[in-house]
Amino acid sequence: MKRFFATLLTVTFTAVAAAQHPSLLLTERGVAEIRAARGEVPAFDRSLEATLRGADDALAQPIVVPQPKDGGGGYTHEQHKLNYYRMFDCGVAYQMTGEAKYARYVVDMLLAYAELYPTLGYHPVKLSGVPGRIFWQTLNESVWLVHTAIAYDCVYDCLTVKERRIIEARLFRPYADFVMNGTSDNRANNAVFNRMHNHGTWATAAVGMIGMAMGDDDLVDRALYGSDKTGRTGGFIRQLDCLFSPDGYFTEGAYYQRYAIWPFVVFAQCIEHKRPEIGIFRYRDGIIPKAVATLTQLAYEGRFLRFNDALDKGYDAQELIYAVDIAYNADPSNKQLLDIAARYQNKFLPTDAGYAVARDIARGEAEPLRFRSALYRDGREGDEGGIAVMRSTDPALNSLVTLKATSHGLSHGHYDKLTMAYYDNGNEVLTDYGAARFINIEAKYKGHYTRENKSFAMQTVAHNTLVVDGRSHFDGDIKRSSKYHSEIFFADFERPAVQIVSAVERNACEGVTMRRTTAYVTTDFLQYPLILDVVKAESAEEHCYDLPYWYNGHMISLDFPYERALRRMTTLGERNGYQHLWVEAEGRNTASSTSCFTWLVGDRFYSLSTATTPQTELRLVRAGANDPDFNLRGEPAYFIRENGKRNHTFCSALESHGTYDLQVEQSANLTASCRGIEMLVDTPECTVARFTFEGGRTVTLCVAYMGDGSSVHEAEAGGEQFEWTGYYDVRM
């Protein structure tokens, strides 16, 4: 009897708690605390005042709920986006002021949508296989519902029973059903709603949050555990299991981790408030706070590393404001998040979490953000390769090298196994193209990814990695690419003067094994750290091997004769991205076994020295050919080509050097120090390369391709013996 009575009390308490509003991002306790603290935390007050101004601006305008017709960036698309932001602002404003006019605005807007929504079919813009009704794709439908659910939660107690019945029956329930079942793809076993993808995360967050706001446990359970509520086929919890590695790396890469983290943290905050027994922020060893921490590390100068489909976004993106505030509120021990909020954002959510961050910054609790070199594993078990990030250990320097050896990255992945990038002195030096897209600029393919995203940006040749026979990895077939991943052979970031990573790819190019070893080396005779890059191709058949280095900045010099295309340019090829490359110059080095290319970025020079032969073809190319709508950025690359080779190893040294001061019109240390590169040993078992610099100083890199960290390796060249233990050795 006592047990039954305790259970009854629990059920009664749970029902009462479920009925409390607000309880998604805002809580009654949080609202009371924020109201009481007005004037005490000026930075938070400014963010709250911006929200209140947004609400007042909304009230000054008529409610407009247009018939959908435009794609991203078009009038109707932007108006519906503006509407959910206005509802959010007014919902918060009502909670903070208690003024009914703000709640009335939200209610009237929802009633207008309740009148429009039942009349809508699929959106007229046919750019997506999963079209929405209000927006051109269901993803935007989910984003609308996430924001609107928060607003509805804030004003819920102001609605009459009749208004709630109309809004829920004519808008929210059919809307949630559409997100779960509304397209042919979704109806096939709820394929989109149950999908392990950021679109699926937005969908589950949207359905779960509106379910919480309405008190509909069935919708919440479907959002948490999939459409069948078993947790085996879909749902938010399964997404946490599948989409992040144990290191908190999101399989689509940093740019889409930035976007996906938004619904993850928002829905998690709602779950924590509504179903605290789940312990969502502790789930899977705290995977959500860990994912936020990892995302903050995948950045340079506050901008996220660009690989896979990616544009230029950083810590100041609205998604990161949500992520930083909510993650800190969940785990206040991570004081480095306060540094990000203070230095890069200076904006706070008008919620319990945002107030906690602003308050603790005002108390002086922020700790400096500390970057580190690390390998971030990919795959739910951490066994699908990874991305290595090597950073300068000298606090006076500011450089970073990446080697990407991950899985494909779902639909936003690129065909770029073993690609690398280099950042230095505040600039992107060796670049990753990212994506060909103009978000919400309707004139550019209605704000969608342009056609050139597939024909160029995704193709292998658009990246700093090996291209075999002018064909993209996996021939650009996502189904094939998604079956495989690269492997990290070894990584070591512990030595003070050497950081190194080595990876292998066996499936991207049929019959060819690709290996890449990249080392970040600090010497006592070069001005800045040195990047050593060894790219090895092995095959039983002859191939044409291309290794492009896409660079930022202005070409300064080549140390071999070349012919510039002065009147007419031709393309480098006809397909697989080559059709988009203008050949600007080409030449060969018949006088030396090492070829050097120097360029300028900002106030610093960079030189890439590579071991070549008189048969090596060297080219300068630029993106932009066969691009009638000027969708591609005209970025340049230095191309190294080896024809008719079974096995070949590209061996290069990248130096940062010199200064250029335009204000006083001075430059210094303009030329590379590298005087030659010798491949002393190059077999399937190991590579030994010697890099000679001005003054006779040398760096010798020894790399093994078999064994483990305790294996002993021996090699001989010209009577010189080399012996080392472990995967590698660097001798200076």
Task: Report on the architecture of this protein.
Helices cover 33% and strands 25% of the residues. The chain is α+β, with helices and mostly antiparallel strands. 52% of the residues are buried. The radius of gyration is 28 Å and the shape is elongated. The strands form 7 sheets. The protein has an 8-stranded antiparallel beta sheet, with no helix packed on it. A 6-stranded antiparallel beta sheet has the order 8-13-20-19-16-15, with no helix packed on it. A 5-stranded antiparallel beta sheet has the order 3-4-5-6-7, with no helix packed on it. The model is unreliable at 1-18 (pLDDT under 50).
What order do the helices and strands come in, and which of them pair?
Blueprint: H1 2-19, H2 28-36, H3 42-59, H4 75-97, H5 100-116, H6 138-155, H7 161-181, H8 184-187, H9 198-214, H10 217-225, H11 236-242, H12 254-274, H13 283-297, E1 299-300, E2 303-304, H14 318-330, H15 336-345, H16 352-362, E3 374-377, E4 386-391, E5 399-405, E6 419-424, E7 427-430, H17 451-457, E8 467-468, H18 478-481, E9 487-492, E10 498-509, E11 512-521, E12 530-539, E13 543-550, E14 554-558, E15 562-564, E16 581-587, E17 594-601, E18 604-611, E19 617-623, E20 636-645, E21 648-657, E22 659-661, E23 666-668, E24 674-682, E25 686-693, E26 698-704, E27 712-717, E28 720-725, E29 728-731
Antiparallel strand pairs: 1-2, 3-4, 4-5, 5-6, 6-7, 8-13, 9-10, 10-11, 11-12, 12-21, 13-20, 14-17, 15-16, 16-19, 17-18, 18-21, 19-20, 22-23, 24-25, 25-26, 26-29, 27-28
